[in-house]
Amino acid sequence: MSTDLRDATGQQRITRLRDTLTTEFEAQTARLTELTADTGDPGEAHTQAAMIAATRQSLAQISDALRRIAEGGYGICERCTAPIPTERLEVLPHARFCVPCQQKQG
């Protein structure tokens, strides 16, 4: 059941999602700090580099979602401008596209 994110219930959901995103941002930032510490093991360099890249991508997605919340564009598909169902946002809080547009995106 989708909820209009502009009504009171929707605003409560946005607040919860913003809190979730903020907590995840803090966790990913701590993870990145740990990953960038020198392990001294050259055999793990490739794996570590991949994990650093994935963590940086996650941080960028979270930051972008927090920016959209602050600017009032959160929950709107960037491709078709339709509302993204709140169920999708609860599963994937940094979603930029509705499911049909995400499938087209590739």
Please explain how this structure is put together.
This protein is mostly helical and 106 residues long. It has a single domain (8-105), classed as Up-down Bundle (Four Helix Bundle (Hemerythrin (Met), subunit A)), CATH 1.20.120. Helices cover 64% and strands 0% of the residues. The protein is built from 4 helices and no strands.
Question: Roughly what is the average pLDDT, rounded to an integer?
Answer: 87
- Largest sheet entry: none
Could you give me the name of the CATH homologous superfamily? Answer: DksA, coiled-coil domain
Radius of gyration computed on alpha carbons: 16 Å
Q: Which keywords apply here?
A:
single chain; 106 residues; mainly alpha; Four Helix Bundle (Hemerythrin (Met), subunit A); 64% helix; elongated
Describe how the helices and strands are arranged.
Elements: H1 8-35, H2 45-71, H3 86-91, H4 99-105
Summarize the structure.
The chain has helices at 8-35, 45-71, 86-91, 99-105. By secondary structure, the protein is an all-alpha fold. The two termini are 26 Å apart.
